[in-house]
Design goal:
With 351 residues, the protein is α/β, with parallel strands linked by helices. Helix content is 35%, strand content 13%. The protein has helices at residues 37-44, 60-70, 82-94, 110-117, 160-169, 224-235, 244-255, 257-280, 302-311, 335-349; strands at 24-25, 77-80, 101-104, 122-125, 145-148, 175-178, 200-205, 218-222, 292-296, 314-315, 327-331. The strands form 4 sheets. The chain has a 5-stranded mixed beta sheet. A two-stranded parallel ribbon has the order 1-10. It has a two-stranded parallel sheet with strand order 3-4. Helix 1 (37-44) runs antiparallel to helix 7 and helix 2 (60-70) runs parallel beside helix 7. The termini are far apart. The chain binds pyridoxal-5'-phosphate.
């Protein structure tokens, strides 16, 4: 037996670059606006002496605030260190049958990594020619289902009746709907379905619509039995996942609904304007309901555009996966940032 035979080896998830210099950063779907003013105020006035103590393991303040926001019971909410933490814990807790877990072939690439890490078998279901989910693919024997809605990196939203059909076809496995981008959709969240389907878990994050990627807060909503199982796993792993500053700042963000609505609306408006500009430049893209646009140009190579933009200090996301290598995933920034992107594309494509 060699040393390496005793090691859990995985191919890790590769996040988008976080350059240390100042660039037009449209590559990791962060929010271009600051968090709610109450967050900065809470950080300014925070009593460092409070850090001597462990935080509340039940994270009651934030959980209760989220429960009011989602119009559910606090026992139906689970919080974690970003939705990546919540999702990882959910894979560990819910996907244990030994049967393959199902998710789309073009989707958040972390799902594969967690499945590999926890040795959960999985099968990827191809999207249809318009890049929508094919619900028929999710009507077979499986060990659980997960997909984002809106999907990433396509930005496409699936109507709740599609999700309900998948839930009804799979009463004995957990179906996770990853709503990282739901606040930009202007469409209903699957949270409204949790009392009707006891196999539904919905996750959301503070990293995108709440401008707090650096604070690491995510949460799940589901019936209390599912949430109870998640908590059991979490307390067996690390009782204190949420830091005190995260609990305080997260609560401030949830309580300021007016600010949240204002910044979200601004991003949606810039997204719709950006779609027009991209179409004028000849780009093709699925009709995004998220804070990014997944676009390709029939005449210009995706990898070439990615590199040429990067040379001009404009960062977008690009993958080498064959099915999507012609595409760029462009985060919706401020109108000024997007104008810089369009000016650069104009220059690159007119040479
Ligand atoms: C960004 C993202 C997440 C994770 O976000 P956190 O920062 O960990 O909360 C989860 N799922 C999808 C689809 C995402 O795009």
């Amino acid at each position: 037996m060699r040393l390496e035979d005793n090691i859990r080896r995985v191919t890790p998830y590769v996040p988008g670059e976080q350059p240390q210099k100042k660039v037009v950063k449209l590559n990791t779907n962060e929010n271009p606006y600051p968090p709610a003013p109450g967050v900065a105020e809470a950080l300014r006035t925070m009593d460092a002496d409070r850090l001597r103590l462990y935080p509340d393991p039940e994270v009651r303040m934030l959980t209760e605030s989220l429960a009011r926001y989602c119009q559910v019971d606090p026992e139906e909410v689970f919080v974690g260190v970003g939705s990546d933490d919540v999702l990882s814990m959910s894979f560990l807790t819910f996907f244990n049958s030994g049967k393959p877990v199902l998710f789309p072939d073009i989707t958040y690439s972390f799902y594969k990594v967690w499945a590999d890490l926890y040795r959960i078998p999985y099968e990827c279901c191809p999207l249809d020619e318009k890049m929508h989910l094919r619900k028929e693919d999710y009507k077979r024997d499986n060990g659980g289902i997960i997909f984002p809605n809106p999907n990433a990196p396509t930005g496409l939203y699936e109507e709740l009746d599609v999700i309900e059909e998948i839930l009804k076809s799979n009463p004995n496995v957990v179906v996770i709907v990853d709503e990282a981008y739901i606040d930009f959709a202007g469409k209903p969240s699957a949270v409204s379905l949790i009392h009707r389907y006891d196999n539904l878990l919905v996750t959301q994050t503070f990293s995108k619509s709440r401008s707090m990627a650096g604070m690491r807060i995510g949460f799940a909503v589901g019936n209390r039995r599912l949430i109870g199982w998640l908590k059991d796993a979490k307390y067996s792993f690390n009782s204190y996942t949420m830091s005190w500053p995260a609990i305080v700042c997260g609560t401030e963000a949830v309580e300021d609904r007016a600010y949240f609505q204002k910044t979200t609306e601004k991003i949606i408006a810039v997204r719709e304007w950006s779609k027009k500009k991209l179409a004028e430049l000849g780009f093709e893209f699925p009709d995004s309901s998220a804070n990014f646009i997944f676009a390709k140009h029939p005449e210009y190579d995706g990898g070439m555009l990615f590199s040429a933009l990067k040379e001009r200090q404009i960062y977008v996301r690009h993958w080498e996966q064959p099915e999507i290598r012609q595409y760029l995933r462009i985060t919706v920034g401020t109108k000024e940032e997007m104008q810089k992107l369009f000016d650069a594309l104009d220059e690159i494509m007119n040479k």
